[in-house]
Design a protein that fits this description.
25% strand, 2 domains, Glutaconate Coenzyme A-transferase, 8-stranded mixed sheet, alpha/beta, disordered C terminus
């Protein structure tokens, strides 16, 4: 029997120069950190492998972990020989990789998360790439940047986006080099390579990476990082996520290189092995960020009432991820099915660098299948963050000079969701904004000096004109006002108690929005301590239905 468990040094010696290496990882979740670190150590000792193009389905790093450790060393020694380029949707949690990109030490190609995951499937099928309408009229469109985000990328163009016309309609074709090497991660492998992911917080594109590497015309090398080894064929059949024949070698990693998320080595609630009771979710402090999350939740509840059923939603990184906690606090979590890009359904989403994991999810599906729900408009709505908004309603969530956070999953979700509630603070920079729970109003003691509602975006990542043409319903929720997207641009529909429209809103924008003739005050419950009582708005839907059998 061919035993696939080998030493990490043996594997690294097999990787050729100039390889295209695909690495799994959603921040630290699913990141084969041990393989990444050992790959660079091998390069330091022997000068190879070098000249690598690294592709990831999301980002195999958080600050000072994973690829960020390698990027720091490359930056400090000004080394441009190890990496020739990266195709990574979200470098935002890797400050050293951002520096490499900004200072032209590595070519940077920015595709959305869903597109990279689907590209892996297309490559595995022998197709030329992904054909989609996602990205039209944005920085991904070849008539703009084509996803090439620095001069090195524009010069080399290894990863391209082409405009194609099918049936008289415009589409984009995303193409990149077929991967030669794949680094993936699981919890357990048996001695012949069958891989299970029972302690991981997501499934990601683990299987698709292996398939893409193994596809014709040239079968490459697939290496899996695991925590433990089992006897051949002893893993329960339905727990095998990647069959052994798709994996060449297995490397056992020390526990310190195999954390579930950046703040936790192991928590059974994150891998779905334990579903915690509702009481274990602690209410969030009453801040202006919570006000925004509450206001979006009101939109969700309104949609539930309108459709007379529970709804499927996507929650993006940042303030949107807080909405799941607020829904649980309000007792309406049974009517809101939150999903996040990495694959979990339900539970309470973790924040910041732990984003991608959920406490107590009731289901976890592969990342490409999750993005099918987004691009296809299967979900009912989405809440996404924003960094800049212009007068037409176009959105830039992540690009400003000197900061290269990348698009993440935003372009696909914003394209496909039938309803979008962009959620974010009205200004940025140092600010003192608090919620007075006694008087139920917003108090702006010191406003931010960075304007977010601007005449011209640094990059267009959501195209509002295309969204209106597709019939999307769009709102922009901040702590001090709510805008609706109309054919004439942004329209102010609600203003927070304690806020003056001219002084606190229009004076802090680079353009003048339309002011509705019927501006309403934002619900004062948003600014009060305790629960808002949203459960009272949907009590009828929480009663057992006579049309379903009871057990």
């Amino acid at each position: 029997m061919f035993r696939k468990v080998v030493s990490v040094d043996y594997v690294m010696d097999l990787i050729p120069n100039s390889s295209t290496v695909v690495i799994s990882g959603f921040n630290l979740a699913l990141t084969p950190e041990y393989l990444i670190i050992k790959l660079y150590e091998h390069y330091e000792r022997f000068g190879r492998p070098k000249d690598l193009l690294v592709i990831s389905d999301a980002l195999p790093a958080v600050p000072n972990r994973g690829l960020d450790v390698v990027a720091k060393k490359l930056y400090e020694c000004r080394d441009s020989s190890f990496l020739r380029g990266v195709l990574i949707p979200y470098p935002g949690f890797s400050p050293w990789l951002q520096k490499l990109i900004a200072e032209e030490l590595v070519a940077y190609y920015a595709w959305p998360l869903g597109i990279v995951s689907w590209w892996l499937r297309e490559v595995a099928c022998g197709r030329p790439g992904v054909i989609t309408r996602v990205g039209l009229g944005t920085f991904l469109d070849p008539r703009l940047r084509g996803g090439c985000m620095n001069e090195l990328a524009r010069k080399r163009r290894e990863c391209t986006v082409e405009l194609v016309v099918i049936g008289g309609s415009e589409y984009l074709l995303y193409r990149a080099p077929k991967p030669d090497v794949g680094f993936i991660r699981g919890t357990t492998a048996d001695e012949v390579g069958n891989l299970s992911l029972e302690w991981e917080v997501a499934l990601g594109t683990t299987l698709n990476i292996a398939q893409a590497v193994k596809a014709r015309p040239k079968s490459g090398l697939v290496v899996a990082q695991v925590l433990r080894i089992a006897k051949p064929y002893s893993i329960r059949v339905r727990d095998v996520h990647v069959p052994g024949p798709l994996i060449d070698y297995v490397v056992v990693a020390p526990k310190e290189y195999h954390w579930q998320v950046s703040s936790c080595e192991y928590d059974p609630r994150l891998s779905g092995e334990l579903i915690p009771p509702k009481e274990s979710v602690r209410p969030l402090e009453l801040t202006y960020e919570k006000v925004i999350a509450r206001r979006v939740l009101i939109e969700f509840i309104g949609l539930v009432k309108s459709l007379k059923r529970p709804i499927m939603v996507n929650l993006g990184v940042g303030i949107p991820a807080m909405i799941a906690s607020v829904a649980t606090e309000e007792g309406v979590q049974e009517l809101i099915h939150p999903t996040i890009e990495s694959g979990p359904w339900g539970g309470t989403m973790l924040l910041h660098t732990d984003f991608g994991a959920s406490v107590g999810p009731y289901a976890v599906i592969p990342l490409p299948d999750q993005f099918t729900n987004y691009e296809g408009g299967i979900i009912d709505c989405a809440s996404l963050g924003f960094m800049q908004v212009d007068k037409e309603g176009n959105v830039n969530p992540s690009f400003i000079p000197g900061v290269v956070t990348g698009p993440g999953g935003f372009p696909v979700i914003a394209y496909g969701a039938p309803r979008i509630y962009f959620a974010g603070s009205f200004t940025a920079g140092r600010r003192v904004i608090r919620v007075d729970g006694m008087s139920k109003r917003l108090v702006i003691e010191k406003d931010g000096d960075v304007v977010k509602f601007v005449n011209k975006l640094y990059e267009v990542v959501y195209n509002a004109r295309l969204g209106l043409m597709m019939g999307q319903e769009v709102k922009y929720v901040t702590e001090r006002c709510v805008f609706r997207l109309g054919s004439e641009g942004l329209i102010i529909e609600e203003v927070a108690p304690g806020v003056d429209i001219d002084r606190d809103i229009i004076a802090k924008m680079e353009f003048k929005p339309v002011v509705s003739s019927d501006v309403k005050e934002m619900d004062r419950r948003l600014f009060s301590e305790g629960v808002m009582g949203l459960i009272n708005d949907v009590k009828e839907l929480l009663k057992p239905s006579s049309s379903y059998p009871s057990y």
